[in-house]
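Researcher: Quick sanity check before group meeting.
Model: Go ahead. Protein one:
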Amino acid sequence: QVQFVESGGGLVQPGGSLTLSCVASGFTFSDYAMNWYRQAPGKERELVANITRAGDNTIYPASVHGRFTISRDNAKSTAYLQMDNRKPEDTAVYYCDVARVGRGQGTQVTVSS
């Protein structure tokens, strides 16, 4: 059974760092690229980070480039999303996702002073 469990979200102040985690199971984690998406209320889902199977290449949209860092530990079947210099517009539900495999339930991140 494929499962994704995200954690690390919460209510945080602007600025600073926050790291989300996604533990995957039920498939061979190292065989797939990983994605982090987010969806804010009333907005479309947005891809915020992608990492290759080996973790040797990453992609970010302009909205988070230079602030977010995706990484992975294939031995632990875990992906991470480090969010630096948080902004209120980063408020959303964040999901880890593997194309054609599945995605998690998401973890809420609220950036507010």
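Researcher: Fine. The other one?
Model: Protein two, sequence then structure:
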Amino acid sequence: QVQLVESGGGLVQPGGSLRLSCAASGFTVAYYAIGWFRQAPGKEREGVSCISASVGSTYYADSVKGRFTISGDNAKNTVYLQMNNLKPEDTAVYYCNAYRGVINYWGQGTQVTVSS
């Protein structure tokens, strides 16, 4: 059964850090482009970061460059999103996505709230 499970969200103060995990089962993340998206209340879902192990590339939205780092652990079939210097505008539900051609998998999301 194909599954993506996000974890690591929570409540953090501005300037704090969180590490999100996206654990995959039923397929191998190394053969897919894995992306993190987020959706804040009343806003559209937006792409945050993406990693493609097969081509050795990463992507970051301008709003998170220098603060977020995406990485993968093929042995654990998991992709991480390290988020540092968090800001209130980073508050959103964060979703993991796996993409390959016509195949597109989504996780259930994890809430990140940045507030003092």
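Researcher: One line on it for the slide.
Model: The radius of gyration is 13 Å.
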